[in-house]
Design brief:
- This protein has helices at 8-21, 37-46, 66-69, 90-94, 111-130, 146-152, 200-204, 222-228, 250-253, 280-284, 288-294, 304-318, 323-331, 338-353, and strands at residues 26-31, 75-82, 101-102, 135-138, 157-158, 164-165, 173-180, 210-212, 215-216, 244-246.
- It is an alpha+beta fold.
- The protein has two domains: 8-86 and 105-180, NADH Oxidase (3-Layer(aba) Sandwich); 200-262 and 270-353, no CATH class.
- Strands 1-2-7-4 form a four-stranded antiparallel sheet, with helices on both faces.
- Strand 5 (157-158) and strand 6 (164-165) form a beta hairpin.
- Helix 12 (304-318) runs parallel beside helix 14 (338-353).
Length: 354
Amino acid sequence: MIDVTANPDLLAEQIRALGRELGFQQTGISAADIGEHESRLAAWLEAGYQGEMQWMASHGSKRTRPAELVPGTCRVISVRMDYLPADTAMAKRLKQPEHAYISRYALGRDYHKLMRRRLQQLAERIQGLIGPFGYRAFVDSAPVMERALATRSGLGWIGKNTMLIHPKAGSYFFLGELFTDLPLPLDAAQETEHCGSCTACLVACPTDAFVDAHVLDARRCISYLTIELKGSIPTELRPLMGNRVFGCDDCQMVCPWNKFAKPTAETDFHPRHTLDQATLVSLFRWDEQTFLSNTEGSAIRRIGHERWLRNLAVGLGNATTSIPVIEALNARRDHPSELVREHVLWALQRHQAA
């Protein structure tokens, strides 16, 4: 057994080794605070950039102060795990208006369960080294400022596109945390960013969602519009969405640091049901049972069949006019959902105008 008080550095090294064994590409340790990121969040919320994501403003300071969320927390162990499949022809798919573009993080199984299970295993293995200790695992599942904490533990910097960027791995990775009461030594925080004068991500955004560097107006972001927004997608933004039907990767695709991104070794993150190759028409034909079956264990299921059809209707409205596209839309024009009907009608009107 390792004596935490006598050998904190040894334990920290063991934790990093265990993290690698469990498939995490990097593990870092920070104090239970996020520094200046607390005031930045307050300013962002004050501007209303969160849109309908009211949960971003809930829980008060528990979101920005880990020890209030989990009493006794003095350290946060942050981990990252690569998710990018080997070759999903991202740029190619975006240039094929008849194909559906789904954010690459969502092509495989839902990362939440996989990473939470691995974090639980990490905690159990730490217990095997030192005995019982206090901890709680998080994977995008509670009011946790994961990117801010990751910078504090040296996992990268927050780029101008608000994504966490690692100099040797880019930004295609998931984050997870263990809040713990262990008095572990701290890793050096990432104090500087390395975006320089590059503005590629800000320019590439299809809907011009960046107010400024590091400031995203979620209400214009395609990821927000296709995943978080529950109602109608603003009419003026629909033509700008192209064939992006679940999330958006544009600001990551143009980031120079992503030339260092490595393909994931996790088979669970590989594309399922050929979602990286599917056409808009084929996905639009899924009935609710097919949707539920094909999205079982997937992050896509969270939006439900109704919003899935809403998003696809927008994609079809932006597709090249063809008989299959018009037939698919006409088949849904009397759909029971007013939300679906509205977007189908918009799409049909687009093709009539064309």
